[in-house]
Amino acid sequence: MTDDRFDAPSDASDVRLAVIAAGAALEHAGVEHGEYEAVLLLAWAAGCEPGDVRRAMLMGETMDVFLSHFAGMPRSVLARFDDALRRRCAREPLQYIVGTAPFRYLSLDVGPGVFVPRPETEMAVDLALDWLRSACIPGAGTRIVDLCAGTGAIGLSLVTELPASQVWAVEKDDDAIVWTRRNASRVLDGIAGAADRYHLVQADATDAATLAQLDGTVDAVVTNPPYIPLATPPEQPEVIDWDPHVALFGGSDDGLHIPVLLLRRIRTLLRPGGLVVMEHDITQGAALREAALRMGFVRPRTEPDLTGRDRFLVACRDGE
Ligand SMILES: C[S@@+](CC[C@H](N)C(=O)[O-])C[C@H]1O[C@@H](n2cnc3c(N)ncnc32)[C@H](O)[C@@H]1O
């Protein structure tokens, strides 16, 4: 760690003081909730729950007493904790360091090369599930497409939460699809028949040839595409320095180039009356509703995220 205010904890040091020192070093590096993350990283290094670290802090335990409760060798746990702190102080995403990110009921593997799934994207899945449960016949082999799959967060959630659904996922990037495959086998292997209901394709999702065999038959397309306007790149180091740029930028100053190409492709994939849910930037609600109307979607609306900001286009294909 470059910060000279932080000394790696020794096994004789007090857990509480070690966490406070680590939290201060993280905040000095610009991490917002330093102590909270220090607890998570120590728990990860020790292979225990964050609550175990908090309990040790309250009890005034030394590191060697705390670590004696768990399997790891104290020295290797402390080395792991110190290495994790160095990486986090360099603003590497917490999820890359611990190797997983939570998404709905899943814990997904993540690391350099794949976009870390965000909590707000869970709402895109909710919007689709609410509609699918009311508009489709249960067990009838509902057809769903997840364009721009990344870790597989959206498609893997849908295929595990909606019994008998068939899900196709499309990812074009060589590095990202390694993670999609890895998550698909980890999530689906334990669920009878699920692997046969999830179909992963490496392709450009804007290309008319991609999933052309499904044209006009898909019940719902859910997508979190690259949409960040080139004119306003994100400043957070965790995003701009670590998330793959192919996952971030929408290909034009307003970020709408790729989302609009996808919307056109989605219009062709959907059956009459089928649903699209597309996550987007807070500036893009009106433009996407207008683009959807121009392409022949009906009743386009914009749904907010939990902070009340415009984040999701929801529309149905015309012709039902
Ligand atoms: C914002 S990330 C979303 C990942 C995941 N769906 C999620 O919500 O966490 C966008 C993903 O789209 C992929 N991507 C970008 N352009 C694409 C294209 N034309 N066709 C297919 N995938 C694309 C990127 O590699 C990245 O994995």
Automatic annotation (TrEMBL):
<dbReference type="InterPro" id="IPR007848">
    <property type="entry name" value="Small_mtfrase_dom"/>
</dbReference>
<keyword id="KW-0949">S-adenosyl-L-methionine</keyword>
<dbReference type="InterPro" id="IPR040758">
    <property type="entry name" value="PrmC_N"/>
</dbReference>
<dbReference type="Pfam" id="PF05175">
    <property type="entry name" value="MTS"/>
</dbReference>
<feature type="domain" description="Release factor glutamine methyltransferase N-terminal">
    <location>
        <begin position="21"/>
        <end position="99"/>
    </location>
</feature>
<comment type="similarity">
    <text>Belongs to the protein N5-glutamine methyltransferase family. PrmC subfamily.</text>
</comment>
<feature type="binding site">
    <location>
        <begin position="224"/>
        <end position="227"/>
    </location>
    <ligand>
        <name>substrate</name>
    </ligand>
</feature>
<feature type="binding site">
    <location>
        <position position="224"/>
    </location>
    <ligand>
        <name>S-adenosyl-L-methionine</name>
    </ligand>
</feature>
<dbReference type="InterPro" id="IPR004556">
    <property type="entry name" value="HemK-like"/>
</dbReference>
<feature type="domain" description="Methyltransferase small">
    <location>
        <begin position="126"/>
        <end position="227"/>
    </location>
</feature>
<keyword id="KW-0808">Transferase</keyword>
<dbReference type="InterPro" id="IPR050320">
    <property type="entry name" value="N5-glutamine_MTase"/>
</dbReference>
<protein>
    <recommendedName>
        <fullName>Release factor glutamine methyltransferase</fullName>
        <ecNumber>2.1.1.297</ecNumber>
    </recommendedName>
</protein>
<feature type="binding site">
    <location>
        <position position="171"/>
    </location>
    <ligand>
        <name>S-adenosyl-L-methionine</name>
    </ligand>
</feature>
<dbReference type="GO" id="GO:0032259">
    <property type="term" value="P:methylation"/>
</dbReference>
<dbReference type="Pfam" id="PF17827">
    <property type="entry name" value="PrmC_N"/>
</dbReference>
<dbReference type="GO" id="GO:0102559">
    <property type="term" value="F:peptide chain release factor N(5)-glutamine methyltransferase activity"/>
</dbReference>
<dbReference type="InterPro" id="IPR029063">
    <property type="entry name" value="SAM-dependent_MTases_sf"/>
</dbReference>
<dbReference type="InterPro" id="IPR002052">
    <property type="entry name" value="DNA_methylase_N6_adenine_CS"/>
</dbReference>
<keyword id="KW-0489">Methyltransferase</keyword>
<dbReference type="GO" id="GO:0003676">
    <property type="term" value="F:nucleic acid binding"/>
</dbReference>
<dbReference type="InterPro" id="IPR019874">
    <property type="entry name" value="RF_methyltr_PrmC"/>
</dbReference>
<comment type="function">
    <text>Methylates the class 1 translation termination release factors RF1/PrfA and RF2/PrfB on the glutamine residue of the universally conserved GGQ motif.</text>
</comment>
